[in-house]
Write a structure and sequence with these properties.
The complex is a heterodimer of chains A (about 625) and B (about 190).
Chain A (H helix, E strand, L loop, with lengths): L2 E3 L8 E3 L2 E3 L3 E5 L21 H4 L7 E7 L1 E10 L4 E9 L7 E12 L4 E10 L3 E5 L11 E10 L6 E11 L2 E15 L7 E7 L2 H6 L1 H6 L8 H16 L2 E6 L14 E3 L6 E4 L1 H11 L16 E3 L16 H21 L5 E5 L22 H14 L7 E8 L3 H7 L6 E5 H4 L5 H7 L3 E6 L13 H9 L3 E4 L22 E2 L8 E2 L2 H18 L6 H13 L23 H7 L1 H6 L7 H16 L1
Parallel strand pairs in A: 5-13, 14-15, 14-23, 18-19, 19-20, 20-21, 21-22, 22-23
Antiparallel strand pairs in A: 1-4, 2-3, 4-6, 6-11, 7-10, 7-12, 8-9, 8-11, 12-13, 16-17, 24-25
Helix pairs in contact in A: 4-5, 6-7, 12-16, 13-16
Chain B lengths: L1 H19 L6 H17 L2 H5 L4 H7 L9 H4 L5 H15 L7 E7 L6 E6 L16 E2 L2 H9 L3 E3 L5 E9 L5 E10 L10
Antiparallel strand pairs in B: 1-2, 1-6, 2-3, 4-5, 5-6
Helix pairs in contact in B: 1-7, 2-6
Classes of the chains: A alpha/beta (about 625), B alpha+beta (about 190).
Chain lengths: ~625, ~190
């Protein structure tokens, strides 16, 4: 890595009122080497030391390469061994003013588990950005380094070619400059992803908790305010801008529906009907017609999927379960929903009938989520029949039944054919059934698998394994089960981030979420996968996948599957945890610990293919 | 022995005293919930309740596997016919109040004195006692009083909340569980939507 020092031997401190100037340096790092606040690299990323030089060309410029319609990312680190004030700016010269640069201050989270600092939350800042070391906000004793994430956005209509620029650090009377060179290739990253990455969440309470400034200062019912809906839309926007989607479940395990997730109902039995669409339409209208994304760089687009509030207690009362009144209530309201959505032109979203409840939460007597007991499958068939009754067969509105499947997935694939068409599968158990993705997709079903985000204590490339696996497996996507829960104190006592990929901007005076390094790396990975997949017209897809797996962790495609275990022929309610773990031994061994360079190597492969394509 | 009997009594008196300090729990609310609890004791069939939680669920409920922390929950199962019969009754009981309320079913666990489990919850997701996600928990003194004496007990442990606990009997006149008729002064439309 090239390190740019200014006034190397001139260590004069210029003491100005309220601040002191000291020698500072500016260095650039690739995205996979996360800095710590003391001038080093966080321990999990230290194995990728060779990546340091990859960022530079022979003339010691930061050499960035990218396709149009996407982002190129790197980091800048301001370092000073003594307290110092500084100002950082960055510029790329594009005569057409198409290329844009986003600068983020990296927050160093102190993790309680290992008593270390890791950068993750990215606070948007404007260049030139002025601050001092140690950072007064992050409050780290002896801090000597402040990191910044740089996103360079290259729009699809940017001109291919070379662009130059620089990052400039001013500290006291001296200036340090890092030269930048961006090569923009002719290729445009496909706008459509081959792997959908979903970011799941539950309810809206987390918004009130994480945006206390807005919530506590609002005089009326905040949950019916424009503030809430703007905030919800901001969450969808940030995931969309990072090539992902978001789900927000609006009901609890006993069927309680938060008002902003459903139309208000009135009547009972055959008179049950929608009484008021107001809140629902304010919440979802801009998401279903795409106007919520009007200012996005990716352009307006309707969200592709959404949870409906439907559960065993809504819209029909469980009091009438298995009686004509239940069917009447369900069919009445579903019919009204179909009509309302059709009249609104909301025909680009898949409306999911999804049962999240588990019997262990004592609301209902069957598992909607992760069926374990085969007897519970009958409930899906009942709702399938009710849906058929409620919806016109030729409706342009897409109602789909979704099931999150684990133990019993193989049986469900068979028994619920034509009823469930969106499958969200436990990744471990899906790995037993290599033929399943193709079988399901050939009949028109959507297949995702699920897990959770890697914590910040894993290496920076860890998050790329999930989208890659989805692509190698030939499934449609991957679901992070929870991505908006940062824990009680993410800033100074972090739980590691296993349930968060975006943070509240509240403590920084922002009324919207802010991204994370892991989200950025995931987005960049998705760009690469979209590009890799686009070469399938020139090269067999299996060959592309094989090479990507090889570059990622020296694996072969077989390593990503487990042999079908004897367990698979035993009824799922007799499966126990240890046997499942044993059945996953092959992948656990083969895929353990991909290195920090894993995705860098895949990215290089994509670049190589692009070069060959030229 | 006397102490054992006195403790629940004192506890009950303390709760009632607390109730008088709670303006949100109006006398109307208390009266209606007490009425629901009284009717519920008659209407909820204890024999059916005893068939809800399956032997498999009971077998695993207290098992601990260091390699599988979800083992008990993963094996939690109920008899859906008994569950549905009882749940429908509980829902109808909640309709007797002029305000939103829930009627929950709690049952002690055979072989595990001092422990109790929530067996059925309802759509407002309200309870003064349930620890969210717990398969079982410690029995409170008020619950113990109901199960031992058959008395109804009004509980206002949490500000703004009111629960009336009442016994559930089977055909042998044994107290096999209790119902919690519960509401609160200010409804929270978002609590437990997760």
């Amino acid at each position: 890595m090239r390190r740019f020092h200014w006034q190397d031997s001139f260590l004069l401190l210029l003491l100005l009122p309220g601040q002191c100037w000291a020698a500072a340096s500016l260095e650039a790092l690739p995205q996979f080497l996360r800095p710590d606040p003391f001038g080093g690299i966080v321990t999990p990323d230290q194995g990728g030391a060779r990546l340091r030089s990859s960022l530079y060309d022979a003339r010691h410029r930061v050499a960035l390469k990218g396709w149009r319609g996407g982002y190129v990312s790197f980091q800048l680190v301001v370092e000073s061994s003594a307290p110092a004030a500084y100002s950082l700016e960055i510029s790329l010269i594009d005569p057409a003013h198409k290329i844009q640069t986003d600068l983020f201050r990296e927050w160093f989270h102190f993790t309680d588990s290992d008593k270390q600092y890791y950068p993750d939350a990215l606070v948007p800042v404007h260049a030139p950005y002025s601050s001092r070391l140690p950072d007064p906000d992050n409050r780290i004793a002896q801090q000597t380094a402040q990191a910044f994430w740089v996103d360079v956005y290259v729009p699809p209509d940017a001109k291919p070619g070379m662009f130059v620029g620089k990052a400039r650090l001013r500290s006291g009377a001296s200036t340090v400059t890092v030269s930048l060179q961006l090569t923009v290739f002719d290729r445009v990253i496909p706008a459509e992803d081959v792997v959908t990455v979903d970011h799941n969440s539950y309810g809206s309470s987390f918004l009130a908790e994480q945006y206390g400034t807005a919530y506590h200062s609002y005089s009326g019912n905040w949950f019916e305010s424009d503030q809430l809906f703007r905030l919800i839309h901001a969450y969808h926007q940030i995931f969309y801008e990072h090539r992902g989607i978001m789900h927000q479940l609006g009901y609890g395990h006993s069927g309680k529906v938060a008002p902003e997730f459903a139309p208000a109902l009135a009547g009972t039995g055959r008179t049950r009907h929608v009484a008021d669409w107001t809140l629902f339409d304010r919440h979802y209208g801009p998401l279903f017609d795409g106007t919520a994304f009007a200012s996005s760089r990716r352009g307006p687009r309707a969200i592709p999927f959404v949870y409906l509030p439907i559960n065993p207690e809504w819209p029909a009362s469980y009091e009438f379960w298995d009686e004509p009144g239940y069917e009447a209530e369900f069919v009445n309201v579903l019919s009204e929903m179909e009509r309302h959505f059709r009249e609104k032109g909301w025909t680009h979203t898949d409306f999911e009938v999804f049962f999240n409840h588990k019997k262990r939460y004592m609301g209902f007597p069957w598992d909607g989520d992760e069926v374990r007991f085969p007897k519970d499958i009958k409930y899906f068939l009942i709702y399938g029949r009710l849906l058929k009754r409620a919806l016109p067969p030729d409706s342009p509105v897409h109602f789909v039944m979704r099931a999150d499947a684990s133990w019993d997935m193989e049986q469900e694939f068979k028994l619920l054919k034509g009823v469930v068409t969106v499958w969200c599968c436990g990744g471990g158990i899906l790995s037993f059934y290599r033929d399943a993705p193709k079988t399901l997709r050939d009949r028109g079903d959507v297949v995702w698998y699920y897990g959770g985000p890697p914590g910040v204590t894993e290496n920076a490339a860890a998050i790329t394994e999930f989208p890659l696996r989805a692509w190698l497996w030939g499934v449609n996507g991957y679901v992070h089960w929870l991505t908006v829960a940062p824990g009680e104190d993410p800033w100074f006592h972090f739980d590691g981030g296993g349930t968060v990929l975006v943070y509240s901007g509240d403590r920084f005076g922002l009324t919207e979420p802010i991204p994370s390094i892991r989200l950025k790396i995931q987005r960049n990975c998705l760009q690469d996968i979209a590009v890799l997949d686009s070469f399938k017209s020139q090269e067999p897809l299996e060959s592309l996948r094989s090479e990507a797996a090889h570059r990622f962790n020296n694996s072969v495609l077989d390593d990503w599957w487990n042999p079908r275990p004897a367990l698979a022929d035993v009824p799922s309610d007799q499966w126990q945890g240890s046997a499942i773990d044993a059945a996953m031994e092959h992948t656990n061994k083969s895929l353990a610990h991909p290195g920090v360079s894993a995705w860098y190597n895949v990215h290089e492969y994509a670049l190589q293919l692009a070069g060959e394509a030229k | 022995m006397k102490i054992v009997h006195l403790l629940p009594l004192l506890s009950t008196l303390a709760m009632l005293g607390h109730a008088q300090d709670n303006p949100a729990a109006s006398s109307t609310m208390r009266e209606e919930l007490e009425s629901v609890a009284r009717v519920g004791s008659v209407m909820v069939d204890g024999d059916v309740c005893q068939r809800i939680v399956t032997p498999l669920a009971k077998e695993y409920m207290f098992k601990v596997d260091p390699h599988n922390e979800w083992q008990a929950g993963d094996n939690y199962d109920v008899d859906d016919v008994s569950f549905n019969i009882t749940k429908k009754t509980l829902i109808r009981l909640s309709h007797l109040t002029s305000f939103p309320s829930d009627v929950n079913l709690w049952m002690p666990i055979e072989g595990h004195p001092g422990k109790i489990q929530m067996v059925i919850r309802n759509k407002n997701e309200m309870s003064q006692f349930w620890r969210w996600g717990a398969l079982y928990q410690d029995m409170t003194p008020q619950m113990e009083t109901v199960l031992k004496t058959g008395q109804r007990v009004t509980v206002m442990n949490r500000p703004d909340w009111i629960s009336v606990l009442a016994p559930v009997y089977n055909s042998s006149s044994d107290i096999v569980g209790l119902i919690e008729a519960v509401s609160r002064g200010r409804m929270d439309a978002h609590e437990n939507v997760k």
